[in-house]
Amino acid sequence: MAERPPWGEVAPPTGRAAAAVTTMAALARAGLRPERPDRLARAMLALAWTGPTLAGGIAAATARYPLAPAVIDDTGTLTFGGLWMQTDGVARGLRGRGVGPSTTVGLLARNHRSFVLGMLAASKLGADLVFLNTGFAGPQFAHVVAAEGIGVVVHDDEFSDVVAACRLDAAVSSTELAELGGQRSFLPLVPSRVQGRTVILTSGTTGRPKGARRAASGSVDALGGILTAIPLRARDTVVIAAPLFHAWGLAHLGIGLGLSSTAVVQSQFDPEATLAAIDEHRPAGLVVVPVMLQRILALGGPTIERYDTSSLRYIASSGSALGATLATAVQHRFGPILYNVYGSTEVSLATVAAPADLQAAPSTAGRTVPGSVVRILDDAGQPVLAGHVGRIFVGSAARFEGYTGGGGKEDVGGLLASGDVGHFEGDGLLFIDGRDDDMIVSGGENVFPAEVEELLGVHPAIAEAAVVGVDDEQFGQRLEAYVVRTPGATLTARDVKDHVRSHLARYKVPRRVVFVDELPRTTTGKLRRRDLGL
Q: Hey, what domains does the chain have and what are their CATH numbers?
């Protein structure tokens, strides 16, 4: 049996009790300390009224700071008090359409107040909630609705045709949502004390998206790790550019509202509009997926410098691989405020690379966060030594409960397979070498696309690149590179091959280079490899 890595001996426990201790300490550091007796009393009464649900956390924030802005979107500002009153009206309307603890509600909305209203109203009613990808085409949307047993869909007006094509008990558009939110009653809505489950869909990069079921306590269990690793503070203002239907954006929305913070959101991501929002609202944080950072940097120095981004205390990135080139470029432009977060919908939060980590090793995924355990295991399920590549397994109290269609991730001793391969260096930094199902075997040699892609990314004439394996009669598989040139650059296939040949082994040189205008990505920025090499 291989020797256990030394840092594995001091990994924190992952049970709910340990997570609770971590969370309480992290909340104190985030600024949620004892406050004015009247505010504390109101918050405690609100929690007693609602119970420990998503609605309960926002109820407590509303009780403390009812006039503080909760959401700022394209149409203006919504205070915590306004959010609570409007969701009472929405919840009454949904209850009239049969929504309750036994109902599954689908939410199909972009980043604006309708998303928040629909989410909170469903929580008040104790309904299960499925967050739907706004990039779904009609057939994919219909498949998910049927597979997840969704009876009611709350949706933006622009998706009315897609929703109408499905058989549903009810559908509520964003226009109807606003009308319901404007209705008032002399009697307060009594929230359900049932904690509905949430279902977040996987990205579907290798097939149809699967529903990952999470208990209502899942976000609370992950709270301590996030607050410990990233400098979120109570009553901050945060620009959330990452999609809210994705686990990364959703986590920051829920945590932020619970901390009485202000979420600044925009329906469509636009890199310059994001900079303008930072300049106007002076946020402490920016939450993104890596491709958004690429698009911001692509604006160029003169455009970026027109906007004051000095208020930013952190930029938090997750959802797909960041890459050393992008990490270095972001820190050069915005300073040492970048945090690279590694995890998944299934395993939750695993590691975070702080600015100092990224300055020392720009390609690292960081260090294990409190409340989680990360192990590198071989094919026999045994731990490997530092520096050796193996499969990544993660333990966390915030892990998902399984796929709604049945099954789950491989489990070894309570640790879930992340689906990635990687290695730890001796100082405890994790490095991701690739997806375990992306490995290419060419002429008997193992190649992970991420290594070649990272090398191509540093070439000044290459904006981005993807490497895939395609069938080859002689070698089993051969490498093909899909390359996006930087604007105005002159680059040939021979240039690309020579660049790889001068840095890596011969068997890692792509046999074919294809130049494309852009790479196919999901709405969360993940590369759709299955759409390449066809």
A: 438-531 (3.30.300.30)
